[in-house]
Amino acid sequence: MFFFFFQKVDDFVSEMFQYLNIEYQREVAIKDKRIDFILKGDNNLDTIVEVKETKSNNSELIINAINQLKIYRNIYNKQKVNKYSILFFFSNVDKNQKDYFLKDNIVIVDIANILYLIKNNEGLINNLKNILPYSIIDVIPEKIELDKYLNYKETSEKEKSICIEDEYIRKIKTIKKGKEGSREFEVIGEKIIKLLFGDYIYNWKSQINCNDNLQRIDLIGKVKKQEGFWNMLYEIYKSRYIVFEFKNYNDEITQNEVYSTNKYLYREALRTVAIVISRYKMNANAKKICSEYMEKLLDDFLIGLAK
């Protein structure tokens, strides 16, 4: 499980370098060592990069990564290696720590810096939220000038900010209602849900078969451990996973859609809550069934507390 998380983080870093037009090599073998990334600068010098995935500011992990970078520099071709090496650290790092290691020509790029580098790319921001097991809603992007370290310069194109919300609204309005536009409604709906809830839910999966391949879930995500509404869904309703269903219907949601969605839920798999995305509201019968279902889960929770 941890391998796949690390793999996703490295994949994200690769996508970020592509977006920033930085030439790179991945998993470069030097003697008996394997370097995460080598960046190619305009000065024909190679910048050594190490990537560490963590959700906390772990000083020991930072120091170990710094020592690793120093080892890589010592065994790398002296004529080709850049003065600076870079540590991408997927957590917040104190400015004093950054300044301290900069004296050794080690540049620490933390999660706030990463958010700054991708601030105008909604796709990369959503990808980042999706792979992280913790929320970054309170992380403020912090400027970092990479050009100081590897001759990288932001282009004017990357300074243009795109209002992705307006673009999604425009696309939704063009989708035909009913079966003909159902798949397009799902695709746009999935992007919107990830944009809205990416700070709270990650590890998204779409078009998932369940119940012996007899049914297919449109979208499912795992709730990140945190306070508030999403944590309540886990603590009270025992739902670590949230199911999303998209209904591009011409009319209100009925009890039939509620019953069919309910078939996707499975208590033992910590999958007890579903959210239906529809153009129209629910009718009275559908609301009644939903209320009864949620009340049953709440009763079970209270009975568990009383034991």
Tell me what the structure shows.
This protein is of the alpha/beta class and 307 residues long. It folds into two domains: 2-159, Trna Endonuclease, Chain: A, domain 1 (3-Layer(aba) Sandwich), CATH 3.40.1350.10; 174-306, 3-Layer(aba) Sandwich (Trna Endonuclease, Chain: A, domain 1), CATH 3.40.1350. Helices cover 43% and strands 21% of the residues. It has twelve helices and nine strands. It has helices at 2-19, 59-75, 95-102, 111-117, 122-131, 147-150, 156-159, 164-174, 182-197, 229-235, 255-262, 284-306; strands spanning 23-30, 33-40, 46-52, 85-89, 106-109, 201-210, 215-223, 241-247, 273-278. The strands form two sheets. A five-stranded mixed beta sheet has the order 1-2-3-4-5, sandwiched between helices. A hairpin with a 2-residue loop joins strand 1 (23-30) and strand 2 (33-40). Helix 1 runs antiparallel to helix 5 (122-131), helix 8 runs antiparallel to helix 9 and helix 11 packs parallel to helix 12 (284-306). The longest helix has 23 residues, at 284-306. It is elongated and about 75 Å long. It starts with a helix and ends with a helix.
Quick description:
This protein has 12 helices and 9 strands. It is of the alpha/beta class and 307 residues long.
Count of separate structural domains: 2
Q: Give unreliable regions as ranges.
A: 1-5, 152-161
C-alpha end-to-end distance:
34 Å
**What's the CATH topology label of the largest domain?**
Trna Endonuclease, Chain: A, domain 1
CATH class call of the largest domain: Alpha Beta
CATH architecture of the largest domain: 3-Layer(aba) Sandwich
Number of helices: 12
Helix content: 40-55%
Rg (CA only)? 23 Å
Order of helices and strands: HEEEHEHEHHHHHHEEHEHEH
Largest sheet geometry: 5 strands, mixed
Secondary-structure-based class equals alpha/beta
Q: Kindly report the average pLDDT value.
A: 84
- Characterize the overall form: elongated
Q: How many extended strands?
A: 9
Strand content: 15-25%
